[in-house]
């Protein structure tokens, strides 16, 4: 699976041009599809605002001129990176774009010396969980929470990377 075969361009996140889109698309999706309340949008805004273009990586998937996906890799320390703000538009799901974006993050992490990638999600996000399992992530923590106006089961997944 390649960008070309999907008709997708994965480009670097541009804080000046993409911030509003990332916040808006996450707010709308998680409100309309997942039933999250308004407390979710500020969490997304803080994550985007904390992005450091020198230390972190962010990618935006584009189909033509339309933004259809996002993924951020945020450094926790020199060896550990956390994946955040992973989103794929409904029109692009099930085609391999999530796997392509995740592989891009893994390659970038290996180049940067990342030896461990982490991601938090909710058990209810079954497509995301399937992607992490198929990509070699291991479940390391799971616990019930009441977040964003609803009961959820939060999960933490990790994957060790062989550093290039």
Automatic annotation (TrEMBL):
<dbReference type="InterPro" id="IPR000182">
    <property type="entry name" value="GNAT_dom"/>
</dbReference>
<dbReference type="InterPro" id="IPR016181">
    <property type="entry name" value="Acyl_CoA_acyltransferase"/>
</dbReference>
<protein>
    <submittedName>
        <fullName>GNAT family N-acetyltransferase</fullName>
    </submittedName>
</protein>
<dbReference type="Pfam" id="PF13673">
    <property type="entry name" value="Acetyltransf_10"/>
</dbReference>
<dbReference type="GO" id="GO:0016747">
    <property type="term" value="F:acyltransferase activity, transferring groups other than amino-acyl groups"/>
</dbReference>
<dbReference type="InterPro" id="IPR050832">
    <property type="entry name" value="Bact_Acetyltransf"/>
</dbReference>
<keyword id="KW-0808">Transferase</keyword>
<keyword id="KW-0012">Acyltransferase</keyword>
<feature type="domain" description="N-acetyltransferase">
    <location>
        <begin position="8"/>
        <end position="162"/>
    </location>
</feature>
């Amino acid at each position: 699976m390649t960008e070309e075969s999907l008709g997708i361009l994965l480009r670097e996140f541009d804080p000046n041009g993409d911030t509003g889109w990332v916040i808006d698309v996450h707010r709308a999706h998680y409100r309309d599809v997942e039933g999250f309340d308004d407390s979710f949008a500020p969490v997304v805004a803080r994550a985007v605002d904390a992005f450091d273009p020198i230390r972190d990586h962010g990618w935006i998937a584009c189909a033509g001129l339309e933004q259809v996906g996002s993924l951020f890799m945020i450094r926790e320390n020199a060896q550990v990176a956390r994946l955040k703000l992973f989103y794929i538009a409904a029109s692009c799901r099930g085609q391999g774009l999530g796997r392509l974006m995740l592989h891009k993050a893994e390659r970038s992490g290996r180049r940067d010396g990342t030896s461990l990638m982490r991601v938090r999600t909710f058990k209810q996000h079954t497509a995301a969980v399937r992607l992490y399992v198929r990509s070699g992530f291991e479940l390391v923590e799971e616990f019930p929470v009441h977040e964003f106006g609803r009961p959820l089961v939060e999960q933490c997944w990790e994957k060790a990377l062989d550093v290039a």
